[in-house]
Design goal:
single chain, about 130 residues, mainly alpha, two-stranded antiparallel sheet, about 65% helix, elongated
């Protein structure tokens, strides 16, 4: 017995008539998010340069939009919305926490390397 996939996005706000229309709709949604990221990266508005929690607001926006895209790709293209709740949580939340953890490590080590090159000495000795 074939399983019918849900032909809607945004929790039913936008509905499609076929799988092909849904694929195009999701492609357009993810393209819009990517275009916003690229435009913000090129323009770098003044309001986005304010520091928030040790990083520029623009960096936080990039991280949040990237996590949104990864979550939505997993949710829609890997058909996580059709799975049981426990499996969805196990896959999606583990991935989100892994991305956040790796981002933290990248930012922490990047700051350390910048300080070493900028000031010419080692602050921490591991």
């Amino acid at each position: 017995m074939a399983h019918e996939h849900k032909l809607e996005i945004f929790r039913g706000l936008i509905k499609f008539k076929s799988n092909i229309q849904k694929i195009w709709g999701v492609l357009i949604l993810l393209s819009i998010v990517t275009i916003v990221e690229v435009i913000l990266g090129i323009i770098k508005p003044e309001w986005s340069m304010t520091p928030v929690l040790g990083m520029k607001l623009l960096n936080w926006i990039f991280i949040i939009l990237t996590i949104f895209k990864a979550y939505y790709i997993t949710w829609d293209f890997m058909h996580m919305r059709d799975e049981v709740k426990g499996l969805r949580r196990a896959v999606v939340w583990t991935t989100i926490f892994l991305i956040l953890y790796l981002s933290f490590i990248l930012l922490q080590e990047g700051g350390y390397v910048f300080d070493v090159y900028d000031q010419g000495y080692i602050k921490r000795d591991f």
